[in-house]
């Protein structure tokens, strides 16, 4: 029993305390139980409500009439999210693992801007990042085909990260070389917008990614030729990472989780139907209620 348990439940036995933690974990993290679904549905409604509050507060006419009401409601919602975040930290076996996980970071960022808004008022609008928590909607309403699709994409990205890093490194080196060349070719022309190498690199990135803002354009013949080469090369830039990820999706399309069970020890959620133990750490999984 750690100091937090002794502070909150000083007279509770360790076995009962562990049972309470497991029960809280089951409600907050799982979606296979009635109370777990009820909790998550209520959480999603609160998230949508809070996002709507932030949007309304950004409208000058509405904010002028209902500013105090909007602020009070936002603080109430933030308080609820703070309590929920504290409960998530409390009931997991390894708080730091949850704290550094994707949802852990998103959960923290969903409440942090409101508190930071006390010092920097404009930062409170960043609390709309909490809408990313709506990813949980796939597991709540049993949309397992979408959940598996998302997991498939995550697995493909994770397995192809080395190739993508090498590719991005090559692109970074390429835009530096191209930007430097364009500065040499266009930099001395009086009508050119290539006033420095960083500006030229910015143009190379915009052109290579086929965004094409048009704020900077070459004026010399050789500069236009080099720009044409970069534009054609840009199509390959789009195709390569898509091909890498697609190949990994095909390769691992059968390695997908079949349920929404979350390991209380390591927080791994990729488990097959009927799994009793976590495939990552071997910890016993909670039995879902049907």
Rg measurement, Å: 25 Å
User: Which fold name corresponds to the CATH topology of the largest domain?
Assistant: Four Helix Bundle (Hemerythrin (Met), subunit A)
Beta percentage is: under 5%
Distance between the termini: 32 Å
What top-tier CATH class of the largest domain fits best? Mainly Alpha
Estimate the helix proportion, in percent: 55-70%
Average pLDDT figure: 79
- What is the helix/strand order? HHHHHHHHHHH
Low-confidence stretches: none
Structural class: mainly alpha
**Number of domain modules:** 2
Tell me the total number of β-strands.
0
Strand count, sense and barrel status of the largest sheet are:
none
Q: Give the name of the CATH architecture of the largest domain.
A: Up-down Bundle
Helix segment count?
Answer: 11
CA-based shape:
flat
What do you see in this structure?
The mean pLDDT is 79. It contains 11 helices and no strands. It has 2 domains: 136 residues, Four Helix Bundle (Hemerythrin (Met), subunit A); 93 residues, Helix Hairpins (Orthogonal Bundle), CATH 1.10.287.70. With 290 residues, the protein is mainly alpha-helical. It is flat. Helix 2 crosses helix 4, helix 4 packs across helix 6 and helix 8 crosses helix 11.
Question: In summary, what is this structure?
Answer:
The protein is mainly α and 290 residues long. The chain contains eleven helices and no strands. The protein has helices spanning 3-8, 14-29, 34-57, 60-91, 95-99, 102-116, 137-140, 144-159, 161-186, 197-208, 221-251.
Defining key terms:
single chain; Four Helix Bundle (Hemerythrin (Met), subunit A); mainly alpha; 64% helix; Helix Hairpins; 290 residues
């Amino acid at each position: 029993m750690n100091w937090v348990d002794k502070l909150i439940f000083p007279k509770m036995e360790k076995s009962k305390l562990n049972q309470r933690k497991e029960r809280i974990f089951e409600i907050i993290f799982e979606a296979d139980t009635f109370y777990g679904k009820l909790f998550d549905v209520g959480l999603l409604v609160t998230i949508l409500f809070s996002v709507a509050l932030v949007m309304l507060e950004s409208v000058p006419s509405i904010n002028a009439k209902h500013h105090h009401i909007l602020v009070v409601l936002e603080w109430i919602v933030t308080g609820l999210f703070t309590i929920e975040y504290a409960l998530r930290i409390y009931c997991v076996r390894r708080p730091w693992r949850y704290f550094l996980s994707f949802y852990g970071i998103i959960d923290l960022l969903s409440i942090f801007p409101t508190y930071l808004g006390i010092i920097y008022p404009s930062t409170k609008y960043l609390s709309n990042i909490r809408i990313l928590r709506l990813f949980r909607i796939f597991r709540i309403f049993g949309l397992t085909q979408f959940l598996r699709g998302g997991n498939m994409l995550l697995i493909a990205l994770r397995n192809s990260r080395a190739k993508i890093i090498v590719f991005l490194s090559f692109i970074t080196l390429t835009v530096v070389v191209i930007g430097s060349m364009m500065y040499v070719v266009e930099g001395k022309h009086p009508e050119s917008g290539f006033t420095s190498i960083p500006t030229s690199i910015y143009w190379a990135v915009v052109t290579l990614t086929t965004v094409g803002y048009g704020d900077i354009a070459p004026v010399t013949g050789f500069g236009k030729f080099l720009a044409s080469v970069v534009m054609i090369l840009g199509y390959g830039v789009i195709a390569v990472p898509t091909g890498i990820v697609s190949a990994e999706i095909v390769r691992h399309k059968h390695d997908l989780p079949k349920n929404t069970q979350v390991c209380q020890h390591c927080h791994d959620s990729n488990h097959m139907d009927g799994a009793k133990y976590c495939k990552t750490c071997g910890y016993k999984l909670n039995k879902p209620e049907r």
